[in-house]
Design brief:
12 helices; single chain; about 290 residues; Rossmann fold; Helicase, Ruva Protein, domain 3; alpha/beta; binds S-adenosylmethionine; seven-stranded mixed beta sheet
C-alpha cells in the first residue's frame, strides 16, 4: 500500500509502452489521466475501509489503485485479457484487490456480492465502457444486486438522461428506471482531455444513491416497466396509442383510456408528460385487468 503511482499522462504512457499495449475501440477504452478527477470520484463514492467495491473495467488499474487505498476490498472485472498482466503489475502492491477476467454482462454479480460481502450492500465505482452503460446499470438494478451506491463516469448526455424529469427532451425510460431504484446526482462534468485516447463526447461523473425502498408503490414492477417502454417507444404518439400498439400489453382501448383518465389526464397526453408516480398509478390501475 502507499500512494497511487498512476493517474497522470506520463505514467500511463510508460505503462502502455512497457507492455506495448494497443487500445481496443470495441471495448470502449478511454483511460483516465487526471488525478483531480480520480480524487473527485473517490470522494463522491464515499468509500471507507468497511466497503467492498466492485469496479467495472479497471483498464491499466489507475482508479483501482485509488479504490484499493480507500476500500476494504476491491473486485475489478475486466474483459480484455491483454490488460490482465498489466493489472497484475500495477496492482502488485495491493493485497485487497481481486481481478476477474470476464465480460461483466455475463457475470452473476448478485452472487459475487453475496459470496464476497456476505450479502451486505456493495459500492460500484467505474469509468464505464460507454457502449454498454445502460445494460450494465439496468443489469445491476434489475438483478437486485445489494448496493449502496453506483458512482460512475458516463457520457454526459446519458448522465443528463438519468437525472432529468418530465418535460425535458432527455426524459425517457432510462430516467424513470434509474429514479425508481436510486437518487441521481451529477457530481462533475469531465472534458475529453482527461482521458487517453480522448473520447469524442463530453463525460460526467454521476452518483446514484440506491433507495432502500422504491419511492412509489408498484404492484407489478415488470408491468410498470413494460408500460414505460411502450410509452417511449413511440414518442410522437399519444400515451393511449403507444400502449395500444405494444406487443407486450394486451389491454383494450377502453381499459387504457379509463386508466389514463383516472390519472386526471386528457386522451391526448403523451408518455413524456408523466411522472414516476403517475406511471406507478397507471400500472397499478391496469394490473390484474387482463
Ligand atoms: N478504469 C479505467 C480508467 O479509468 O482508466 C478504464 C476505463 S475504460 C473507459 C473502460 C474499461 O472497461 C476498459 O478497460 C475496457 O476494456 C473494459 N470493458 C469493456 N467492456 C467490458 C465488459 N463487457 N466487461 C468488463 N470490462 C469491460
Amino acid at each position: 500500500m502507499g500512494t497511487p503511482t498512476l493517474g497522470n499522462p506520463q505514467n500511463t504512457i510508460a505503462v502502455l509502452q512497457k507492455y506495448n499495449f494497443s487500445f481496443q475501440k470495441k471495448f470502449g477504452q478511454n483511460f483516465l489521466i487526471d488525478t483531480h478527477v480520480l480524487d473527485k470520484i473517490i470522494r463522491a463514492a464515499g468509500i471507507t475501509k468497511d466497503d467492498m467495491v466492485l469496479e467495472i473495467g479497471p483498464g491499466i488499474g489507475t482508479m483501482t489503485q485509488y479504490l484499493a487505498e480507500a476500500a476494504g476490498k476491491v473486485t475489478a472485472v475486466e474483459i480484455d485479457k491483454n490488460l490482465i498482466p498489466i493489472l497484475e503489475d500495477t496492482l502488485s502492491e495491493y493485497d485487497n484487490v481481486t481481478i476477474i477476467n470476464e465480460d461483466v454482462l455475463k457475470l452473476d454479480i448478485r452472487r459475487l456480492a453475496d459470496d464476497e460481502n456476505q450479502g451486505r450492500p456493495i459500492k460500484v465505482v467505474a469509468n464505464l465502457p460507454y457502449y454498454i452503460t445502460t445494460p450494465i446499470i439496468m443489469g445491476l438494478f434489475e438483478n437486485h444486486v445489494p448496493m449502496e451506491s453506483i458512482t460512475v463516469m458516463v457520457q454526459k448526455e446519458v448522465a443528463d438522461r438519468m437525472q432529468t424529469g418530465p418535460g425535458s427532451k432527455d426524459y425517457g425510460a432510462l430516467s424513470l428506471a434509474v429514479q425508481y431504484y436510486a437518487e441521481p446526482y451529477i457530481v462533475a462534468n469531465v472534458p475529453p482531455n482527461c482521458f487517453m485516447p480522448r473520447p469524442r463526447v463530453g463525460s460526467a461523473v454521476i452518483r446514484l444513491t440506491c433507495h432502500k425502498q422504491p419511492p412509489v408503490e408498484v404492484k407489478d414492477e415488470k408491468l410498470m416497466f413494460d408500460i414505460i417502454r411502450a410509452s417511449f417507444n413511440q414518442r410522437r404518439k399519444t400515451l393511449a396509442n403507444g400502449l395500444k400498439n405494444s406487443d407486450k400489453l394486451k389491454y383494450s382501448r377502453e381499459e387504457i383510456e379509463e386508466a389514463i383518465q383516472s390519472l386526471g389526464k386528457g386522451a391526448s397526453v403523451r408518455g413524456e408528460a408523466l411522472t414516476l408516480e403517475e406511471f406507478a398509478a397507471l400500472s397499478n390501475r391496469l394490473c390484474g385487468l387482463s
